[in-house]
Amino acid sequence: MALTARQVQLAKPGDKTITLTDGYGLQLVIFPHGRKGWRWRYYRPNGKRNMLSFGHYPEVSLAQAREQALDARRLVKQGIDPGEQRKQDQQEHAETQRNTLRLLAKEWHDNASKRWKATSKRAQLSWAVLELHVFPFLGDRPIEEIKPLEWLAVLKRLEEQGKHEQKRRVHFFCRDIYRLAIVTGRAANNPLSDLGVALERGPGKRSFAHVSQEEVPALYRAIHDYRGGLMVKYAMQLLFLTAARPGELRQAHWKEFDLEAAVWHVPAERMKMGRAHQVPLPRQALAVLEQLRAITGHYPLLFPGRSDPRKPISEMTLGMAFKRMGYAGRHVPHGTRHVIATGLKERGFPREWIELQLSHKLPGIEGVYVHAMHMSPEQRPRMMQEWADLLDGYLREGVDKHSA
Protein backbone atom coordinates (compact mmCIF):
# COMPACT_ATOMS: atom_id res chain seq x y z
CA MET A 1 0.00 0.00 0.00
CA ALA A 2 1.09 3.58 -0.64
CA LEU A 3 2.48 5.49 2.30
CA THR A 4 0.70 8.41 3.93
CA ALA A 5 2.31 11.60 5.14
CA ARG A 6 1.35 10.61 8.71
CA GLN A 7 3.09 7.22 8.41
CA VAL A 8 6.25 8.86 7.13
CA GLN A 9 6.21 11.37 10.00
CA LEU A 10 5.64 8.77 12.76
CA ALA A 11 7.96 6.05 11.43
CA LYS A 12 10.49 5.12 14.17
CA PRO A 13 13.99 3.72 13.74
CA GLY A 14 14.89 0.22 14.86
CA ASP A 15 18.02 -1.79 15.53
CA LYS A 16 18.37 -2.39 11.80
CA THR A 17 17.65 -0.33 8.70
CA ILE A 18 13.92 -0.31 7.93
CA THR A 19 12.54 0.07 4.41
CA LEU A 20 8.94 1.22 3.78
CA THR A 21 7.61 0.91 0.24
CA ASP A 22 5.41 3.58 -1.38
CA GLY A 23 5.02 1.93 -4.77
CA TYR A 24 6.49 2.25 -8.27
CA GLY A 25 9.98 1.73 -6.83
CA LEU A 26 9.87 4.58 -4.28
CA GLN A 27 11.02 3.67 -0.77
CA LEU A 28 11.55 5.41 2.55
CA VAL A 29 14.67 4.08 4.28
CA ILE A 30 14.89 4.60 8.07
CA PHE A 31 18.39 4.20 9.49
CA PRO A 32 19.08 3.09 13.09
CA HIS A 33 20.39 6.53 14.00
CA GLY A 34 16.99 7.99 13.04
CA ARG A 35 17.79 9.55 9.65
CA LYS A 36 15.15 8.99 6.96
CA GLY A 37 15.98 9.00 3.25
CA TRP A 38 14.15 8.52 -0.02
CA ARG A 39 15.36 5.86 -2.46
CA TRP A 40 14.03 4.91 -5.87
CA ARG A 41 14.82 1.59 -7.49
CA TYR A 42 14.43 1.08 -11.21
CA TYR A 43 15.66 -0.79 -14.27
CA ARG A 44 18.04 1.05 -16.57
CA PRO A 45 17.35 1.03 -20.34
CA ASN A 46 20.02 -1.75 -20.57
CA GLY A 47 17.99 -3.95 -18.20
CA LYS A 48 20.26 -3.61 -15.15
CA ARG A 49 18.88 -2.56 -11.77
CA ASN A 50 19.90 0.75 -10.23
CA MET A 51 18.98 3.02 -7.33
CA LEU A 52 18.71 6.79 -6.97
CA SER A 53 18.60 8.93 -3.83
CA PHE A 54 15.95 11.66 -3.73
CA GLY A 55 17.17 13.34 -0.54
CA HIS A 56 16.23 13.12 3.14
CA TYR A 57 13.00 13.56 5.04
CA PRO A 58 11.72 16.08 6.18
CA GLU A 59 13.76 18.27 3.79
CA VAL A 60 12.06 16.33 0.97
CA SER A 61 8.42 15.56 1.69
CA LEU A 62 6.48 12.51 0.51
CA ALA A 63 4.80 14.55 -2.23
CA GLN A 64 8.13 15.90 -3.45
CA ALA A 65 9.72 12.45 -3.49
CA ARG A 66 6.78 11.11 -5.52
CA GLU A 67 7.19 13.99 -7.97
CA GLN A 68 10.88 13.18 -8.43
CA ALA A 69 10.04 9.51 -8.97
CA LEU A 70 7.42 10.43 -11.57
CA ASP A 71 9.91 12.59 -13.46
CA ALA A 72 12.45 9.76 -13.37
CA ARG A 73 9.93 7.20 -14.68
CA ARG A 74 9.16 9.50 -17.61
CA LEU A 75 12.85 9.55 -18.50
CA VAL A 76 13.01 5.76 -18.43
CA LYS A 77 10.05 5.59 -20.83
CA GLN A 78 12.02 7.82 -23.18
CA GLY A 79 14.98 5.44 -23.04
CA ILE A 80 17.02 7.77 -20.80
CA ASP A 81 18.82 6.53 -17.69
CA PRO A 82 17.84 8.96 -14.87
CA GLY A 83 21.10 8.18 -13.05
CA GLU A 84 23.26 9.15 -16.04
CA GLN A 85 21.06 12.17 -16.69
CA ARG A 86 21.60 13.30 -13.09
CA LYS A 87 25.40 12.99 -13.46
CA GLN A 88 25.28 15.04 -16.64
CA ASP A 89 23.10 17.70 -15.00
CA GLN A 90 25.46 17.86 -12.02
CA GLN A 91 28.47 18.28 -14.30
CA GLU A 92 26.76 21.04 -16.23
CA HIS A 93 25.75 22.77 -13.00
CA ALA A 94 29.29 22.53 -11.66
CA GLU A 95 30.61 23.99 -14.92
CA THR A 96 28.08 26.80 -14.72
CA GLN A 97 29.11 27.60 -11.16
CA ARG A 98 32.75 27.78 -12.26
CA ASN A 99 31.97 30.15 -15.13
CA THR A 100 31.56 33.25 -13.05
CA LEU A 101 31.50 36.70 -14.59
CA ARG A 102 34.87 37.49 -13.02
CA LEU A 103 36.47 34.38 -14.52
CA LEU A 104 35.07 35.08 -17.99
CA ALA A 105 36.06 38.74 -17.70
CA LYS A 106 39.65 37.75 -16.90
CA GLU A 107 39.77 35.49 -19.96
CA TRP A 108 38.30 38.24 -22.17
CA HIS A 109 40.70 40.83 -20.75
CA ASP A 110 43.75 38.62 -21.33
CA ASN A 111 42.75 38.09 -24.97
CA ALA A 112 41.85 41.74 -25.59
CA SER A 113 45.06 43.02 -24.00
CA LYS A 114 47.09 41.15 -26.62
CA ARG A 115 45.28 43.09 -29.38
CA TRP A 116 45.68 46.49 -27.76
CA LYS A 117 49.01 48.19 -28.35
CA ALA A 118 51.58 47.79 -25.61
CA THR A 119 51.64 51.49 -24.69
CA SER A 120 47.86 51.72 -24.43
CA LYS A 121 46.27 52.39 -21.04
CA ARG A 122 43.14 50.66 -22.26
CA ALA A 123 43.95 47.33 -20.58
CA GLN A 124 44.45 48.96 -17.20
CA LEU A 125 41.40 51.21 -17.59
CA SER A 126 39.04 48.44 -18.69
CA TRP A 127 39.90 46.20 -15.73
CA ALA A 128 39.62 49.11 -13.30
CA VAL A 129 36.13 49.90 -14.62
CA LEU A 130 35.01 46.30 -14.10
CA GLU A 131 36.50 46.10 -10.62
CA LEU A 132 34.85 49.34 -9.55
CA HIS A 133 31.41 49.18 -11.17
CA VAL A 134 30.65 45.49 -11.93
CA PHE A 135 32.51 42.94 -9.80
CA PRO A 136 31.18 44.15 -6.42
CA PHE A 137 27.63 43.38 -7.61
CA LEU A 138 27.90 40.52 -10.10
CA GLY A 139 31.51 39.36 -10.23
CA ASP A 140 31.09 36.03 -8.42
CA ARG A 141 27.81 35.08 -10.07
CA PRO A 142 27.70 32.38 -12.79
CA ILE A 143 27.40 34.32 -16.03
CA GLU A 144 24.40 32.28 -17.23
CA GLU A 145 22.40 33.11 -14.11
CA ILE A 146 22.66 36.90 -14.30
CA LYS A 147 19.35 38.36 -15.49
CA PRO A 148 18.91 41.35 -17.84
CA LEU A 149 17.24 43.33 -15.03
CA GLU A 150 20.36 42.89 -12.89
CA TRP A 151 22.51 44.31 -15.69
CA LEU A 152 20.03 47.14 -16.12
CA ALA A 153 20.39 47.95 -12.40
CA VAL A 154 24.19 48.16 -12.75
CA LEU A 155 23.94 50.51 -15.72
CA LYS A 156 21.12 52.58 -14.24
CA ARG A 157 23.19 53.12 -11.10
CA LEU A 158 25.91 54.76 -13.20
CA GLU A 159 23.34 56.70 -15.21
CA GLU A 160 21.78 58.16 -12.06
CA GLN A 161 25.23 59.22 -10.88
CA GLY A 162 25.80 61.05 -14.15
CA LYS A 163 28.68 58.72 -15.06
CA HIS A 164 27.66 58.29 -18.69
CA GLU A 165 31.13 57.50 -20.02
CA GLN A 166 31.63 54.84 -17.34
CA LYS A 167 28.20 53.43 -18.19
CA ARG A 168 29.17 53.26 -21.86
CA ARG A 169 32.40 51.44 -21.04
CA VAL A 170 30.71 48.93 -18.74
CA HIS A 171 28.07 48.24 -21.39
CA PHE A 172 30.70 47.80 -24.12
CA PHE A 173 33.14 45.66 -22.12
CA CYS A 174 30.52 43.36 -20.62
CA ARG A 175 28.76 42.90 -23.94
CA ASP A 176 32.10 41.68 -25.33
CA ILE A 177 32.57 39.32 -22.37
CA TYR A 178 29.25 37.68 -23.20
CA ARG A 179 30.26 37.35 -26.84
CA LEU A 180 33.29 35.35 -25.72
CA ALA A 181 31.09 33.25 -23.44
CA ILE A 182 28.66 32.51 -26.28
CA VAL A 183 31.26 31.46 -28.87
CA THR A 184 32.95 29.19 -26.28
CA GLY A 185 29.64 27.55 -25.33
CA ARG A 186 29.39 29.01 -21.83
CA ALA A 187 26.40 31.27 -22.41
CA ALA A 188 23.34 30.96 -24.62
CA ASN A 189 22.48 34.63 -25.09
CA ASN A 190 23.75 38.15 -24.46
CA PRO A 191 21.49 40.03 -21.98
CA LEU A 192 23.28 43.33 -22.69
CA SER A 193 22.48 43.41 -26.42
CA ASP A 194 19.09 45.11 -26.12
CA LEU A 195 19.46 47.13 -22.92
CA GLY A 196 20.09 50.37 -24.81
CA VAL A 197 16.33 50.89 -25.24
CA ALA A 198 15.96 51.24 -21.44
CA LEU A 199 18.85 53.67 -20.95
CA GLU A 200 19.33 57.38 -21.51
CA ARG A 201 21.57 58.39 -24.38
CA GLY A 202 23.75 60.64 -22.23
CA PRO A 203 25.59 63.72 -23.42
CA GLY A 204 27.13 63.51 -26.87
CA LYS A 205 30.84 63.04 -27.26
CA ARG A 206 32.55 66.35 -27.89
CA SER A 207 34.50 66.55 -31.12
CA PHE A 208 37.95 68.07 -31.27
CA ALA A 209 38.09 71.76 -32.11
CA HIS A 210 38.36 72.26 -35.87
CA VAL A 211 37.86 74.98 -38.45
CA SER A 212 34.96 75.03 -40.90
CA GLN A 213 35.39 74.07 -44.54
CA GLU A 214 35.32 77.77 -45.42
CA GLU A 215 38.30 78.38 -43.12
CA VAL A 216 40.44 75.52 -44.48
CA PRO A 217 42.12 77.56 -47.27
CA ALA A 218 43.36 80.22 -44.84
CA LEU A 219 44.58 77.61 -42.34
CA TYR A 220 46.43 75.59 -44.97
CA ARG A 221 48.09 78.73 -46.31
CA ALA A 222 49.11 79.62 -42.74
CA ILE A 223 50.72 76.19 -42.39
CA HIS A 224 52.55 76.68 -45.70
CA ASP A 225 53.91 80.02 -44.44
CA TYR A 226 54.77 78.74 -40.94
CA ARG A 227 58.17 79.97 -39.71
CA GLY A 228 58.38 78.12 -36.39
CA GLY A 229 60.53 75.24 -37.72
CA LEU A 230 60.53 73.19 -40.90
CA MET A 231 60.00 69.84 -39.13
CA VAL A 232 56.84 71.09 -37.40
CA LYS A 233 55.59 72.69 -40.62
CA TYR A 234 56.02 69.39 -42.50
CA ALA A 235 54.21 67.52 -39.72
CA MET A 236 51.19 69.82 -39.97
CA GLN A 237 51.17 69.47 -43.76
CA LEU A 238 51.29 65.68 -43.52
CA LEU A 239 48.36 65.72 -41.09
CA PHE A 240 46.28 67.40 -43.79
CA LEU A 241 47.62 65.17 -46.58
CA THR A 242 47.14 61.79 -44.85
CA ALA A 243 44.31 62.17 -42.28
CA ALA A 244 46.53 60.27 -39.81
CA ARG A 245 46.11 60.58 -36.07
CA PRO A 246 48.67 63.00 -34.62
CA GLY A 247 50.13 60.28 -32.40
CA GLU A 248 50.57 57.91 -35.33
CA LEU A 249 52.37 60.60 -37.31
CA ARG A 250 54.60 61.75 -34.44
CA GLN A 251 55.80 58.20 -33.81
CA ALA A 252 56.22 57.29 -37.51
CA HIS A 253 59.46 55.56 -38.57
CA TRP A 254 61.10 55.94 -41.95
CA LYS A 255 61.11 52.16 -42.43
CA GLU A 256 57.28 52.25 -42.56
CA PHE A 257 57.26 54.31 -45.76
CA ASP A 258 57.40 52.80 -49.24
CA LEU A 259 57.91 56.01 -51.20
CA GLU A 260 58.18 54.16 -54.49
CA ALA A 261 54.76 52.54 -54.01
CA ALA A 262 53.46 55.74 -52.34
CA VAL A 263 52.16 53.89 -49.26
CA TRP A 264 52.72 54.35 -45.54
CA HIS A 265 52.38 51.03 -43.68
CA VAL A 266 51.46 51.80 -40.06
CA PRO A 267 52.07 48.71 -37.88
CA ALA A 268 49.25 47.32 -35.74
CA GLU A 269 50.98 48.02 -32.42
CA ARG A 270 50.79 51.76 -33.05
CA MET A 271 47.18 51.84 -34.20
CA LYS A 272 44.25 52.68 -31.93
CA MET A 273 42.23 49.77 -33.31
CA GLY A 274 45.16 47.36 -32.95
CA ARG A 275 45.35 46.46 -36.65
CA ALA A 276 47.82 47.42 -39.38
CA HIS A 277 46.83 50.38 -41.53
CA GLN A 278 47.75 51.46 -45.06
CA VAL A 279 47.87 55.18 -45.89
CA PRO A 280 48.05 56.17 -49.57
CA LEU A 281 50.49 59.03 -50.17
CA PRO A 282 49.52 61.68 -52.73
CA ARG A 283 52.26 63.43 -54.75
CA GLN A 284 52.23 66.41 -52.38
CA ALA A 285 52.85 64.13 -49.35
CA LEU A 286 55.76 62.46 -51.16
CA ALA A 287 57.24 65.90 -51.87
CA VAL A 288 56.99 66.86 -48.18
CA LEU A 289 58.58 63.56 -47.15
CA GLU A 290 61.50 64.13 -49.53
CA GLN A 291 62.08 67.55 -47.96
CA LEU A 292 61.78 66.09 -44.47
CA ARG A 293 64.19 63.24 -45.26
CA ALA A 294 66.92 65.78 -45.94
CA ILE A 295 66.52 66.89 -42.31
CA THR A 296 65.75 63.70 -40.34
CA GLY A 297 66.43 60.85 -42.78
CA HIS A 298 69.49 59.73 -40.80
CA TYR A 299 67.28 59.06 -37.75
CA PRO A 300 64.81 56.13 -37.38
CA LEU A 301 61.97 58.58 -36.59
CA LEU A 302 60.49 61.12 -38.99
CA PHE A 303 60.11 63.59 -36.15
CA PRO A 304 62.86 62.96 -33.55
CA GLY A 305 62.85 64.94 -30.34
CA ARG A 306 65.38 67.70 -29.87
CA SER A 307 66.85 66.45 -26.60
CA ASP A 308 66.61 62.71 -27.37
CA PRO A 309 66.33 61.73 -31.07
CA ARG A 310 65.33 58.21 -30.06
CA LYS A 311 61.99 59.63 -28.90
CA PRO A 312 59.46 61.54 -31.02
CA ILE A 313 58.59 65.19 -30.65
CA SER A 314 56.24 66.04 -27.81
CA GLU A 315 52.49 65.57 -28.26
CA MET A 316 52.19 69.26 -27.39
CA THR A 317 54.38 70.42 -30.29
CA LEU A 318 51.75 70.51 -33.02
CA GLY A 319 49.10 71.97 -30.72
CA MET A 320 51.41 74.84 -29.80
CA ALA A 321 52.12 75.47 -33.49
CA PHE A 322 48.40 75.95 -34.23
CA LYS A 323 48.16 78.31 -31.26
CA ARG A 324 51.10 80.38 -32.55
CA MET A 325 49.30 80.74 -35.88
CA GLY A 326 46.30 82.23 -34.10
CA TYR A 327 44.08 79.13 -33.94
CA ALA A 328 43.99 78.66 -30.16
CA GLY A 329 40.62 77.13 -29.25
CA ARG A 330 39.62 77.01 -32.93
CA HIS A 331 41.67 74.12 -34.28
CA VAL A 332 43.71 71.33 -32.69
CA PRO A 333 45.80 68.67 -34.47
CA HIS A 334 43.23 65.88 -34.04
CA GLY A 335 40.50 68.16 -35.41
CA THR A 336 42.23 67.93 -38.80
CA ARG A 337 40.73 64.48 -39.29
CA HIS A 338 37.23 65.91 -38.85
CA VAL A 339 38.00 68.61 -41.42
CA ILE A 340 39.24 66.03 -43.94
CA ALA A 341 36.32 63.65 -43.37
CA THR A 342 33.80 66.46 -43.88
CA GLY A 343 35.58 67.70 -46.98
CA LEU A 344 35.67 64.24 -48.54
CA LYS A 345 32.00 63.60 -47.72
CA GLU A 346 30.99 66.89 -49.33
CA ARG A 347 32.82 65.79 -52.46
CA GLY A 348 30.82 62.58 -52.68
CA PHE A 349 33.43 59.95 -51.85
CA PRO A 350 32.11 56.62 -50.50
CA ARG A 351 31.67 56.44 -46.76
CA GLU A 352 33.67 53.21 -46.44
CA TRP A 353 36.68 54.80 -48.20
CA ILE A 354 36.61 57.74 -45.81
CA GLU A 355 36.15 55.59 -42.69
CA LEU A 356 38.99 53.33 -43.75
CA GLN A 357 41.26 56.32 -44.46
CA LEU A 358 40.59 57.44 -40.88
CA SER A 359 41.21 53.86 -39.69
CA HIS A 360 37.70 53.65 -38.24
CA LYS A 361 35.87 50.36 -37.90
CA LEU A 362 32.72 50.23 -40.01
CA PRO A 363 29.55 49.93 -37.90
CA GLY A 364 27.50 46.78 -37.35
CA ILE A 365 27.82 43.63 -39.43
CA GLU A 366 29.72 45.56 -42.09
CA GLY A 367 32.59 46.07 -39.66
CA VAL A 368 32.73 42.32 -38.94
CA TYR A 369 32.84 41.02 -42.51
CA VAL A 370 34.22 43.83 -44.67
CA HIS A 371 38.02 43.82 -44.67
CA ALA A 372 38.78 45.43 -48.06
CA MET A 373 41.54 48.05 -47.97
CA HIS A 374 40.22 49.97 -51.02
CA MET A 375 43.81 50.64 -52.09
CA SER A 376 43.38 50.16 -55.84
CA PRO A 377 44.49 53.30 -57.79
CA GLU A 378 40.91 54.41 -58.40
CA GLN A 379 39.83 54.17 -54.78
CA ARG A 380 41.52 55.67 -51.70
CA PRO A 381 44.70 56.76 -53.55
CA ARG A 382 42.60 58.78 -56.03
CA MET A 383 40.46 60.19 -53.22
CA MET A 384 43.47 61.46 -51.27
CA GLN A 385 45.15 62.76 -54.42
CA GLU A 386 42.07 64.83 -55.23
CA TRP A 387 42.05 66.14 -51.65
CA ALA A 388 45.75 67.07 -51.89
CA ASP A 389 45.13 68.79 -55.23
CA LEU A 390 42.34 70.78 -53.59
CA LEU A 391 44.73 71.92 -50.84
CA ASP A 392 47.30 72.85 -53.50
CA GLY A 393 44.64 74.96 -55.15
CA TYR A 394 44.18 76.91 -51.91
CA LEU A 395 47.91 77.76 -51.97
CA ARG A 396 47.66 78.97 -55.59
CA GLU A 397 44.65 81.09 -54.67
CA GLY A 398 46.73 82.75 -52.00
CA VAL A 399 49.54 83.51 -54.45
CA ASP A 400 47.10 84.90 -57.00
CA LYS A 401 45.43 87.14 -54.40
CA HIS A 402 48.81 88.33 -53.16
CA SER A 403 49.92 89.14 -56.75
CA ALA A 404 46.72 91.07 -57.43
Automatic annotation (TrEMBL):
Coiled-coil positions: none
Stored CDD domains: INT_P4_C
A Pfam short name: Arm-DNA-bind_3
GO biological process: DNA integration; DNA recombination
Family matches, as Gene3D superfamilies: 1.10.150.130, Integrase, DNA-binding domain (3.30.160.390), Intergrase catalytic core (1.10.443.10)
Entry GO MF terms: DNA binding
Keyword DNA-binding attributed: yes
Domain Tyr recombinase residues, every copy: 206-384
PROSITE patterns linked: TYR_RECOMBINASE (PS51898)
The keyword Aminoacyl-tRNA synthetase is assigned to this record: no
Keyword vocabulary terms for this entry: DNA integration, DNA recombination, DNA-binding
Domain of life: Bacteria
Family: Belongs to the 'phage' integrase family.
Protein's UniProt name: Tyr recombinase domain-containing protein
Organism: Halotalea alkalilenta
